[in-house]
Amino acid sequence: xxxxxxxxxxxxxxxxxxxxxxxxxxxxxxxxxxxxxxxxxxxxxxxxxxxxxxxxxxxxxxxxxxxxxxxxxxxxxxxxxxxxxxxxxxxxxxxxxxxxxxxxxxxxxxxxxxxxxxxxxxxxxxxxxxxxxxxxxxxxxxxxxxxxxxxxxxxxxxxxxxxxxxxxxxxxxxxxxx
Length: 178
Fold this sequence. Notes:
- It is a single chain.
- About 65% of the residues lie in helices and about 0% in strands.
- The chain is built from nine helices and no strands.
């Protein structure tokens, strides 16, 4: 039976009785060699096959999710919360010259204050923010803008419109090349 598949998918290398030639799928050769010739490699075959199954399952799940996805922008907007902008608050302070190692903690204190006061971060007063750190200035209110936050992430893989459009074009090109 193996001979039938070897003849169909590839030829045997003349010096190897049980292996496919290099023109066949190389990873099948690895599995064959591991199972037949090397006990150390045998231990790596099972995890590799587990990973292959996991990737296959993941692709099926992603296909199902994407094929039934119904985007509802109004629900997405309702789900936005000011604490999602905590990193933007840290970035704001970095632009003011504060080292990031400090801004991370300051931003965390603002989130904690927001929770203590049961007040969304964007509704905290300037005085409340200033009590957390005196380097906050009145323009801090501009941080709480979801659209601006999205557009500021313009690096490759970022969330800005341009970065997302670039990713979409790249994926479409990859699909066309298949």
